[in-house]
UniProtKB/TrEMBL annotation, chains A, B:
Keywords: Chloride, Ion transport, Membrane, Transmembrane, Transmembrane helix, Transport
Localization annotation: Membrane
Source organism of this protein record: Cryomyces minteri
Pfam families: Voltage_CLC (PF00654)
Main location: membrane
Gene3D superfamilies: Clc chloride channel (1.10.3080.10)
Record's protein name: Chloride channel protein
TM region(s), chain numbering: 90-114, 126-143, 164-184, 204-222, 261-282, 288-307
GO molecular function, one term: voltage-gated chloride channel activity
Any one GO CC term of the record: early endosome
Listed CDD domains: ClC_3_like
Lipid bilayer topology: Multi-pass membrane protein
Length: 578, 578
């Protein structure tokens, strides 16, 4: 597969990587995705892609980079490298610290890890993740890369509290932001399935990058807002106007010039929205968080200025009765708040994060008064987006790449039981030791190859004696044990530790080696009765993190269900319901 | 039990109730604890206890009251009243909204629910809890009970950023706060085991309340700080001084008067600490959050003024090189920050909450700069407190009341397997249908009574046929089914649906009623092999929320482990390790 692709491209380093981190934390293995090579290439590539001025963010890749660091660090300690659960805990905390550093929002990082990437998050992991994020934020404070002595990406301070009539506008922004986010996902899908399928683009991803860069340059240069780097633009959009900057130009217009500014912002909105769609998915390290916030910020600023215009025009009457007609145009309506509210709503529409976004926005502003507007817009946005498009951007990527990911957010309504998806046991998929605890190595190799052909590299072979399940040997362990054998032709492998057979001595002649495979055997694989409700099966896969479940009927072995088969079944169910 | 207690006291309404809510959410039933009666009594009682001026808070009881409301509301909808999982989700969200309203911190509420009360918290519940907290905060904003148009309990704003040398002080405050919290727990235990065991106090809890109230009145009146209500005192302690209030008196002293103020605060600290210990646990609705924060706040303010004194005395030299000698005494060190940092650290020592506290402190101040000091103090405090006293205040209450709660935070290191704690199957604890699927109702009643004597009201009776587990009937269902029978003497109950026996017709003469019990039977109880590692058993109890696990040996029924027995085993293990 990799050989057919152009040699200059290292696919693991492209994109944001958040979807893949999520899949890895759910228990699947994407080989090399969190390795040293990815770390190096992604870090170098990110410097180039961010400084190019394309409509992309560095926040998502930060998560991937931080997770790589966590993974590489794990390899140094056997406690973590040998224990998958422990390692995942470290990876969760690393991903959190990525967000903490990207936004300068340590608590937002903790919630990101909880809400987006982690599969199971007990309070102990919460505390450790929190610790990791605080240490990350402290390092940032000491290193002071922005030179402001602040850790936040940017900081805006609103001194004016919001008025009750603005609640309508905030709800509207939630709807618009959610819809924009959902449409972005739909547009991304269409773009990936049409333009990116063209033979030329498919074979030459670098060509696509160059085309996008060229388009961005040509289109963006003529509008002040599209020319700015994304983070700076978002900061400008979200900022309130100090009274002295009310020159009537730029983002702080006087009443008469508002229509003009709105027109200018509308053009920027259209350009930025299109650029973000065509940029997302090109093969450079690129995140979607801040670009989606910028698109939302433009939208919010447009709405904000329109509300501001009305408040100035109809000042003192109706719902604007408390707004002064003269003086500071921001006395009543601060368009910067609208920009940040819509930025959060749009990012929610794209990622479907909720509490995390409310916290990050809060950490960017420190405005106690505005926690409620942010939160309400995020809530409304999530409902709107979920109604228009059930998949978040990460679900879309997971789906397009066919990663075997069992979503723990949407749980289908099950009416079936385990027996309905259990395959009957076939002799090539079990190790039967009814006659003898000794099995020929050749036979084991055959069974292993059969399993590998079925794509169940991470599966296992149950060991049964007179139809009773007495153990299970995981496929990777069996492979390891067989590979260690000198000669497979003449080896007999001991597959049971509990019972001694009578004829054991007779059977082992001098010509064969007797090898003990019992250390590799799991003596108590998780087994459920055939009538177990599917809800229990779901919980076992999601909460216990199992890869396969053995099935028993009246105490006897009756088959096995692999997680992949279960994921397929759940996807089918959800697909039917949608 | 209730009859032996004095009639005037309704025990469910006393205390904070957070420990009990936690136990209920872990899956156990405390009858009537979340009912209408508790709701009414606790609300009325809380008004009286808070206005009494005792050293107690309203925040914990808010959690209990909110959970009662959630529970009463659940009863109106069959979707929630009949589904225990759904109901617990509502209760989680209610508890969160209690904290959200108490502190005016909606995000803090979400984290409280996650970190303290909920047993299992998937992202879907997170979003719903968030929604509930935002609605609660919005109601608060509209109702505006404080008349400030703000939702927060109190709001402090620090305009001065912290200096690096202060980090040492913040770490020290974390240690002191954690130690204070741990000592508070130890003192509470001693007080409960000595004074509260006195016959007079035990039989007349009202006497204790009166004694505590009398002591509080006599001791508190003479010191300005101890006389203030707890919330107001905390607000004063945490507030920065505006320049014009530097009269040299009160909490904003000039350099020369600092030792004086520190002395006055020390007296207040000692009084308040002792009052809080003797107040906690009296039989009135009373929380510990704000009182513990006040004790910590006094401690922090003492340290803060001492650091301030040094900074003023040695201004311009050494670590104080950036501090001006004259002018505003708070130019370098703001003692209010120290007070809030120590308040958080002490509350952490008492409750062992971490992220929640950092968020609540952040929501009270909105100070981006101070997120790091708060968080670091909380982290250090948690370590210190855990080292001095492994139990949080809720664990202490849970232990003292012997609630069967399986702590999902501290997981012991298991080296054993399931077989080590499995009791051999005894004939009176199983229903054997090897000979016939029909069992006499009298026999079933005997088995049920045996189970009830063993204290396993929520247990179950496994159904076995020729040593193979074919089903299980939960004790409450069996009781319900037996109670519905007209006459137990002559009834035969059908206990298996899957196989038809040959002699079925012969056996059922006209004299007996044949009753079908199969609808009550769980055809697939969760069963694990006898060699399953104890870690898996732990995960099944904690994550799957099981009440009992059947045990199989080579496919045959080999016993049963009830959650209570497992909790006892885990407590024993943890006790040995400590």
């Amino acid at each position: 597969m990799a050989q057919q692709r152009p040699p200059m491209i290292y696919y693991s380093a492209a994109g944001s990587g958040v979807a893949e981190v999520k899949v890895i934390l759910s228990g699947f293995v994407l080989h090399g995705y969190l390795g040293m090579k990815t770390l190096t290439f992604k870090t170098l590539g990110l410097i180039l892609s961010v400084s190019s001025g394309l409509s992309l963010g560095k926040e998502g890749p930060y998560v991937h980079i931080a997770t790589c660091i966590g993974n590489v660090a794990c390899r140094m300690f056997s406690k973590y490298s040998h224990n998958d659960g422990k390692r995942r805990e470290v990876l969760s905390a690393s991903a959190a610290s990525g967000v903490a550093v990207a936004f300068g929002a340590p608590i937002g990082g903790v919630l990101f890890s909880l809400e987006e990437v982690s599969y199971y998050f007990p309070p102990k992991t919460l505390f450790r993740t929190f610790f990791c994020c605080i240490v990350a934020a402290l390092s940032l404070k000491f290193l002071d890369p922005y030179g402001t002595n602040k850790i936040v990406l940017f900081e805006v301070r609103y001194m004016t509290d919001w008025k009750f009539f603005e609640m309508i506008a905030f709800i509207l922004l939630g709807i618009l932001g959610g819809a924009t986010g959902a449409l972005f996902i739909k547009a991304s899908r269409v773009w990936a399935q049409t333009f990116r399928r063209l033979t030329l683009v498919k074979n030459w991803p670098i060509l696509e990058v160059m085309l996008v860069a060229l388009t961005t340059g040509l289109v963006s240069f003529w509008n002040r807002y599209t020319r700015l780097p994304v983070t700076e633009l978002l900061f400008e959009l979200a900022s309130p106007c100090d009274t002295f900057t009310h020159t009537g130009y730029g983002l702080c217009p006087t009443e008469g010039r508002i229509p003009n500014v709105v027109g200018y912002l509308c053009i920027a909105f259209v350009i930025k929205a299109i650029l973000t769609v065509i940029t997302f998915g090109i093969k450079v390290p690129a995140g979607i968080y801040v670009p989606s916030m910028v698109v939302g910020g433009l939208l919010g600023r447009i709405v904000g200025h329109m509300v501001q215009y009305m408040a100035l025009k109809y000042a003192g009457s109706g719902i604007f009765s408390n707004c002064p007609a003269d003086g500071n145009p921001e006395a009543c309506v601060v368009p910067g708040v609208y920009a940040l509210v819509a930025a959060g709503a749009t990012m929610c529409g794209v990622t479907r994060l909720s509490v995390t976004l409310a916290v990050i926005l809060f950490e960017l502003t420190g405005s106690l008064d505005h926690v409620l507007p942010f939160s309400i817009a995020v809530l409304v946005s999530k409902w709107t987006a979920d109604a228009l498009e059930p998949l978040s951007i990460y679900d879309l990527l997971t789906d397009m790449n066919s990663y075997p990911f069992l979503d723990n957010k949407v749980r289908p309504v099950f009416t079936t039981e385990l027996g309905d998806i259990t395959q009957r046991p076939r002799p090539e998929r079990v190790i039967d030791i009814s006659n003898s605890p000794l099995v020929h190595a050749k036979e084991l190799r055959q069974k292993l190859e059969y399993l590998q052909m079925a794509g169940e590299l991470d599966g296992g072979l149950p060991i049964i004696r007179e139809s009773v399940l007495v153990g299970l040997i995981p496929a990777p362990d069996l492979e390891f044990a067989l590979d260690k054998l000198g000669s497979e032709d003449s080896s007999l492998c001991l597959m049971s530790m509990h019972t001694r057979w009578n004829g054991l001595e007779d059977e082992t002649s001098d010509a064969v080696d007797l090898t003990d495979f019992t250390p590799y055997i799991d003596p108590a694989p998780v087994a459920l009765a055939v009538h177990s409700p599917m809800d229990l099966v779901y919980e076992c896969f999601v909460k216990l993190g199992l890869r396969y479940i053995c099935v028993l009927r009246d105490g006897q072995y009756a088959g096995m269900v692999h997680k992949k088969a279960f994921v397929k079944y759940v996807k089918h169910l959800v697909g039917q319901a949608a």
